[in-house]
Amino acid sequence: MKVVVLVLALLAPAIVWAQTPYAGMQSRQIKALSDQQIADLKAGRGMGLALAAELNGYPGPSHVLELANRLELSPDQRGKVQNMFSAMKSETTPIGNRLIEQETDLDRQFAGRTITADSLGAATAAISKTQGELRQAHLKYHLLTAAILDQAQLAKYAELRGYSSDAPAQQHRHHHR
């Protein structure tokens, strides 16, 4: 009997934690965004928003630049991809900052108990629109980057990233620096 009580006493915190996966998130600056997500949005990183492109053969400028030597980019290609990467960051960073502001506003309304059905609708519509703009911007640069590479480079990229069927499985991080 004592063993059962001891086991239950030791397992109780784990059981409670498993039932409350959001425990600890209440202290976040913006409840809906982690510190990492906020940092990624401020830095213009993709955060997996372009997976539809990335995993279907449309590499993004960040990863192409990381693999530039192994892809044997020409100086012209490297320059074009670098310019696209800079343009992408310039475009996506303000959108990410706007999304942070909108999430902050929504969080503030809930925290202050000032939220109404109308303000909720307006806030979530604005957030959705901004999320769509951000995703479109990241996807656009994958489309543009793929157009600069030839078929051999696209195949090599897929192999290096572990996407081709004969490539060894690898872990991938899908964000832009």
Describe the structure.
The chain is mainly α. The protein has one domain (27-160). It is 68% helix and 0% strand. It is globular and about 60 Å long.
Provide a quick synopsis of the model.
The chain is an all-alpha fold.
Unreliable residue stretches: 169-177
Instruction: State the total count of DSSP E strands.
Output: 0
Share of helical residues:
55-70%
Q: What summary fits the major beta sheet?
A: none
Radius of gyration: 22 Å
- Structural class call reads mainly alpha
Question: What structural keywords apply?
Answer:
globular, single chain, 8 helices, mainly alpha, 177 residues
Chain-wise SSE layout:
Elements: H1 2-19, H2 35-43, H3 51-54, H4 61-66, H5 68-71, H6 75-111, H7 117-148, H8 151-160
Helix pairs in contact: 2-6, 6-7
